[in-house]
Amino acid sequence: MGPDLRNALVILLPRLRRFGLALSGSASDADDLVQLTCERVILRSEQLREHGRLDAWLYGIMRNLWIDELRYRKRRRHDDLDTAAGVIGDDGQAVVDGRITLAAVRVAMLGMPADQRILLMLVCVDGLSYREASETLGIPLGTVMSRLSRARQDLHQRMNPTTAPDGVSQFPPRGGVGRDKRPGEAR
Q: Does the first or last residue of the chain, that is N or C, have fewer Cβ atoms within 10 Å of its Cβ?
């Protein structure tokens, strides 16, 4: 690139910026276009055929660069953040809460007797039927049912401690709430 071309380019910079503003409508985009155009001219100055129409050549380069930019933006267009509000996805709070609960259940199960923990895993996690768990462990079906019932109650107690400060259980007594009499007795 000769000194004449360099001087002519410096003189045309304000006009190039105005043309960039007209193309893009943005001062920052216009500045980027001017920079890219000047870079292209410096790298390809040997392609200039007619020195008298330098401005037309520069405008053509800038226009082509802008068209390329628009194509690029169209391919990689990003929507506004407001449009993301309608996108369905995982609820972050629910995912975190679920992981915390799972960790608490694991800790609670580690404190349980092995026979209860094994039955909970087989029936509640692995999905075995009571009969399949009975056959797998080699124990009677009734034992599976009673151990599993105790295991569920134990896990519930470990996950939800429900004793009042005075040590009284919050669960209703076996006969129901407020039952003073035995079944069959008159009130």
A: C
